[in-house]
Design goal:
Layout lengths: L8 E4 L6 E5 L10 H7 L4 E5 L3 E3 L2 E3 L3 E3 L2 E2 L1 H22 L6 E6 L1 H12 L6 E5 L17 E7 L7 H13 L3 E7 L7 H12 L3
Parallel strand pairs: 2-3, 2-8, 8-9, 9-10, 10-11
Antiparallel strand pairs: 1-3, 4-5, 6-7
This protein binds D-malate.
Length: 205
Amino acid sequence: MRPVPDFIHEFVPGRSERTLLLLHGTGGNERDLLSLGRELDQNASLLSPRGQVLENGMPRFFRRLAEGVFDLEDLKRRTHELADFVAAAAEHYQFSAEQVIAVGYSNGANIAASILLLRPQTLHGAILFRAMVPLMPPAQPDLSSVRVWIGAGDQDPIIPTSESQRLAELLRGSGADVTVRFFNAGHNLTNDEIEAARDWLKSWV
Ligand code: MLT
């Protein structure tokens, strides 16, 4: 039996209770972040879906009208579909739904942030590389038991650092424990920040 609603995905069983939900950037796929996930946590299970929207043939997790301008109705619908998929996958693969940590890059980080804001019970934590405020939630979520690490590039031409800061404030305002780090980088990830995110994750008790 496959998880419903279905996404093309990879699942790699791990040796601990934790599952990393890997969410790729625009033009990526379900295999893109598997090695990053393993680098971040040697023991976690990895669940990696492929975004179901195609923009000029490039997979994404939700539609946008222009760079940084999102189709909010589509974003909301797809946020719920993805959260439902994670719940169904937890049942199907028998991993703990209480120990899911999103690891998202760019468009994947934006839908992870949207899950935090609209379906907060889905995630125990999140690592958001190059994220912005995806939408304003209709009601304030309770994120008091959620930890979030945000990595921003100080020369990122797509996501200004002020946006990462705005996201951090929004999540903090809902009770999340948020760490924001700025790196000497553009939109692409650097080894430094992967190491920093890994150390942050390791520091969880
Ligand atoms: C988005 O559309 O989610 C952001 O602009 C990042 C991206 O270019 O994918």
